[in-house]
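Reopening this ticket.

The earlier resolution said the output was attached, but the attachment link was broken on my side. Pasting everything inline this time so it's all in one place.
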Amino acid sequence: MATLAFASQPASAQLLASGKPIRLVVPLTAGSTVDAVARALGPGLGRATGHPIVVENVVGAGGIPGTTQVVKAPKDGLTLGMISSNHVINPGIFKSIPYDSLKDITPIAVLVTVPLVLVVNAKLPVRNLQELLAYAKAHPGALNYGSAGNGSTLHLAGELMIAETGIDMKHVPYRGTGPLITDLVGGQVQLGFVSVSQVVPQLKAGTLRALAVSTAVRSSALPDVPTMAEAGVPAYSFDAWIALIGPAGLGKALVDSYAAAVKSAMTSPEAQAAIAGQGLMIVEKGPNEAPAFFQSELAKHQKLVKLSGATLN
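Inline output:
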């Protein structure tokens, strides 16, 4: 059906007839969650559109160089981008970005949310979130929470917890999640928010303890771990997410065709396996819902960036 949709409109038919590959830019490293979703989506998207999908990693500066290539690409539908929550965080932490995060893109679909889990080193004498909050209030400033870097989603998830609970913790930024998890296990930092899929081995081994997930609903990968709201912080909800975009100005017929192709591709075995393996949750927000979603996420994340005080050159 998606392939027929591509052939049914003039702009889409022109794209279909070109026979050229579709370039899917991932502005993050190979092996990242965003990259995994892009590569899992690619085969199904290729079948639905009738075009080969070429995934290209363009890394650096919070995803800005890669996203810049997408927004400056020709408006022919042959260049798309896979972005994450960093897209709406960056305007608050970088002094200059060569594009407008809302005006210079065409939203196609919000694909998945990425549940985060609050973990503590197993030697910390707390068994649940309420015990952690009590410990933090009894030892103000004594706890260090780590993140994947200033202004990262993991940083802002921690800042939201501080804002909602009033506890006093010190932030320790790392260059990526790998070093963060190493130091969480080693006890150099006592706690942090991390992607669910990245700490399942440590949780099974007992070196880290899961206290709560950041999302409004429990993670299927950790069904026994409560949400932050269930654990006693009712206003807390934080979702990282992954979305598909194109440059601004893509025609409606082309965007609608892509949205239909994405919906088909998300049901493919490759995509389903990646989603389950990464502990992700499918979000069905197409081109009609995605613009408002991006606007609300930009406002929310900019507020958290101000609370964190994070800045980058």
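Reporter confirms the inline version is readable. The first strand starts at residue 22 and ends at 26. The CA atoms of residues 76 and 177 lie 36 Å apart.
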